[in-house]
Amino acid sequence: MENGSFCLGGGSSKPLLEMISNKRLELKIADKWVWKDSEPATFSVKSAYGLFMVEGGEEDSRMYKFFWRIKAFHSAHVTAWKVIENNVASKVNLERRGTRVESNLCCLFRASEESTNHLFFGCRVAWLIWNLC
Predict the structure, then answer these.
(1) For site-directed labelling of 125, which of 34, 73, 107, 132 has its Cα 20 to 30 A away?
(2) Domain extents for the chain?
(3) pTM score of the predicted model
(4) Please, which residues bridge with residue 5 across strands?
């Protein structure tokens, strides 16, 4: 590309805009979403889960299969999953994602940052509350 020109193989150059300005795309097919990781090419939670398991490796796959087969309320699974993935809306995570927080310290004692680990394993008050559940 030189001064708005596109060089074709034989050394001649034409402005790129001139080359494409009179071209029209005429497709008689409507756009559609295609999920390439399963047959037929339609999305399913099962196919996404299978893809996730392959990418995570065999050891991760066994752990996740075990985790999701545990008999528990769905909300407990989701909460535990968020803790494992460090995806809890703690002050530290909110700050990391660009949300302004007045202080990232735990609101109870202001002695530690409010991280996922602190909320579920480090804060004495939170630990007492979790043990009541």
Answers:
(1) 73
(2) 33-69, 72-133
(3) 0.51
(4) 2, 15
